[in-house]
Amino acid sequence: MPRVSICIPAFSQVECLRRTLQSILQQDFHDYEIIVTDDSPDDSVATLVQSMDFAGRMRFFKNIATLGSPENWNEAVRRATGDYIKILHHDDHLSRSDSLSRYVQALDERADIDFAFSASRGESAATNTYYHHRVSPEMLTALQRDPAVTLFCGNIIGSPSATIYRRTVPVAFDNKMKWLVDVDFYIRVLQQNPLLTYIPEPLVNISTNAAHQVTAICRNNGYVDLPEHARLFVKIFDHVSADPEVEYRWIKLFDQYDVDYLVDLVRYEAEPLPSDYFAVLLKWRRREKFVLRMGPKSQVALPPFKRGERGPLRFIRRMSFFAGYAIYVHLPESAKMLWRRAKRRRGSAFCGRPDWQNASYNVAETMSAASKLLQTMWQLVRDRTRPARRLVAYRIYRWPLEPNLELDDTVVSYSAAGEDCVAFAWLRDAGVKPNEIRYLDVGASDPVVLSNTMTMYRNGARGVLVEPDFIMAENLRSRRPGDVVVNAAVAFDERRVATLIRLNRSAFNTFSEAQAERVVAESAGWGVQLSIVGRTKVELIPINEIIEQHLNGVSPHFLSIDAESVDFEILQSLDFTRFRPWIICIEKSHSLAEFAGFLVTKGYRRICETPHNGMFMLDHLPVST
């Protein structure tokens, strides 16, 4: 039995994996085995593994079905036989020849610990810069004293590639998470045994900000960040709910994603449980918004939560502070001198009145200061009322007048122009229950943003999502676990494999070089410059086979096609003699008249046109589902 199992969950990027394997070959510690679990759609990883000689110490496993991250990590760990588990992502590598021996030594020296980690060196693929991730003694003490609170407020351990732990630890990575999956794992490991060892030298190089990484779609994404924080918070609620640092962490998240009410969390698909905790926290935040956004000076003077102070007195004290501070900023220097003198004499800027009779200052200067003060106060009113005005707009156009967790019959649209609500309304009018609706979403892309099927999913419908981009497919699996996700493309000609051109905005991914070049050129005037980030071979599956296999040969109630320039070809390939979707929503890559002319011959009529899509429905809907 080897001393340590180096577990490498791989997915394409063979050049990164080659560097990882070469760093293992350079180690001075040799009592190890290498477990490579391959989630790639091709054989590139298998070819690389076969070309490298590890004297029988490497075992390769090709996953039959794509597991995704982090289940691929769990698969590698399940295959391990060593005493210790050393996770090493395929795009990370060991930085020193003694890195592995240092990791093993950390666990060998202390039999009472199950977990160790080291400092790391981060390499940004986007900016070609690097940084060192280290832990201060104070942070290490806080981690050992209260790992749940410390890690919930920030991942001070770093990537799993910087850790090693005993195989006897009965903890697996949560496959329903991808952004906080490592934090969740660390917390559960350290809750069982809080003792650990920290190695201050950077023993591993971590790749960051690369386009191929799953974290690329998670960073600053409220639809991932908030739901995963909520999921983690439920697991550790009893332990961390009373901690002010955790409360402040939530406040910063609410600030980042502009969350004011519970209904805003629902909008981000986060489960605000327990609801009474979040209701109180959001109420505090709304009261404190005037102070929390006044800048660093007010942050120091007025902490976000002061224990023991509640009600109107706190509000009056803090608003008085801001009013006095704003006036003080715009006073002439001569008046400020008297202000400071009075403050030193009486102990407070708000007690007593300075000796204004002795103030010598210019009238014009005073008028200018008064004008600046009025402008500042007017801008303050506009800035402070913007959230309230935005909330009124939400309530009028998108949300019920009394926000609550149960949205009743209110239907929230996630489409570009309400196409999902139109289709949902027609299907309900036809007598189809929401939980009986079947849909097929071709080119699903994001699970929530601009999704034509998210409204139906939230109301109980289920269906099939077809997405060729592997990162977006992984995102769909995580956010839409009730749907079947097909990581492939729908065939638009006789080919069964094609090259997908991936752009930095996945919604514009295409199989057409001309289309990609046109979009990149046009994006210069959009304010967001698009660029090609890679090309990937993907499988092409006929749409009839997808319906036959994943919908059991039953026609979907709703068919959405968004395939960037090949929409009409996909529509023409559908066998309307066997499958007749009730409602079809298709992107206007061709003229709408061309789509209408084709679908009219198939027994459809146009029911709606939006700036980007056309919608068609059967002339005579079936009487049952």
Give an account of the 3D structure.
The protein is an alpha/beta fold and 625 residues long. The chain folds into 4 domains: 4-214, Spore Coat Polysaccharide Biosynthesis Protein SpsA, Chain A, CATH 3.90.550.10; 222-303, no CATH class; 313-397, no CATH class; 419-618, Rossmann fold, CATH 3.40.50. Helix content is 41%, strand content 18%. It has 23 helices and 19 strands. Strands 1, 2, 3, 4, 5, 6, 7, 8 and 9 form a 9-stranded mixed sheet that branches. Helix 12 (275-292) packs parallel to helix 14 (312-329). It is globular and about 75 Å long. It starts with a strand and ends in a 7-residue tail after the last strand.
Terminal Cα separation, in Å? 58 Å
Radius of gyration: 29 Å
Please tell me the CATH architecture of the largest domain by its name: Alpha-Beta Complex
CATH hierarchy class name of the largest domain: Alpha Beta
CATH topology of the largest domain: Spore Coat Polysaccharide Biosynthesis Protein SpsA, Chain A
Domains (count): 4
Structural class: alpha/beta
Tally of separate helices = 23
Uncertain segments of ≥5 residues (pLDDT<50)? 290-310, 343-362, 393-408
Got a strand count?
19
Query: Largest beta sheet, briefly?
Result: 9 strands, mixed
- Percentage of residues assigned to helices: 40-55%
Q: What is the general shape?
A: globular
CATH superfamily of the largest domain: Spore Coat Polysaccharide Biosynthesis Protein SpsA, Chain A
Bin the strand percentage.
15-25%
